Amino acid sequence: MILPIVAYGHPVLRKVARDIDNSYPDLDKLIADMWETMYGSNGVGLAAPQINRDIRLFVVDSAQIFEHMDEEERKEEDYPDAPGVKQVFINAHIVEEAGDDWAYNEGCLSIPKIREDVYRAEEVTLRYMDEQFNEHEQTFSGITARVILHEYDHIDGKLFIDHLTPLKRKLMKRKLDDITKGNIRVDYKMLFPK
């Protein structure tokens, strides 16, 4: 089932999410709904706060980024994380960020029609659980690390615009206010703040 995406301004997006255990109700269905919602809105990642759940859960499919790259893009740059991952992350916590910060143009399903260059670390090491609650510690790099860090921000109550300069945020204030008020049209369901 495709769930509505929570829009900028909703308080759940600013809440630090809580860890869960395997007794969380209907977790398998929730994860399946998150995949369906993410693909239905053309996303490459989706965090539980974006569907109005304050839990440390997100899904990432960076593999589709590489699948949709043309040959020219592949030749231009070395992608250490190719072919990407399709993974569920539960109770994720960052162990370490490493490498140089690099810029990449990011957007967010909760903040539609706004894109900006954001600097993030080249690598992130995460401790997390998969959907069977097996614990992992794994290092991710490149575009995959970026998508993970973006979704990780969501479970920590942060948004990609928090990485921008105060001036850039001030310049986009009207657009952000429009999103909060529901004055935006997208081709997926959204849940606006009341």
From TrEMBL:
- CDD domains per the record? Pep_deformylase
Task: Provide the catalytic activity annotation.
Answer: N-terminal N-formyl-L-methionyl-[peptide] + H2O = N-terminal L-methionyl-[peptide] + formate
Transmembrane residues, as ranges?
A: none
EC number(s) from the headed UniProt entry? 3.5.1.88
> Which keywords accompany this UniProt record?
Hydrolase, Iron, Metal-binding, Protein biosynthesis
Which GO BP terms apply? Answer: translation
- Molecular function terms in GO for this entry? metal ion binding; peptide deformylase activity
Q: Does the keyword Iron apply?
A: yes
Enumerate the Pfam families for this protein: Pep_deformylase
Gene of this entry: def
Cofactor info, note text:
Binds 1 Fe(2+) ion.
The record's InterPro entries line, in alphabetical order, gives: Peptide_deformylase, Peptide_deformylase_sf
Q: Where does Fe cation bind?
A: 108, 150, 154
Could you tell me which species this protein originates from?
A: Cnuella takakiae
Q: What does this protein do?
A: Removes the formyl group from the N-terminal Met of newly synthesized proteins. Requires at least a dipeptide for an efficient rate of reaction. N-terminal L-methionine is a prerequisite for activity but the enzyme has broad specificity at other positions.
Cofactor section: Fe(2+)
Q: Which family does it belong to?
A: Belongs to the polypeptide deformylase family.
Q: So where's the catalytic machinery, residue-wise?
A: 151
Write the protein's name.
Peptide deformylase
| Iron found in the keyword field | yes
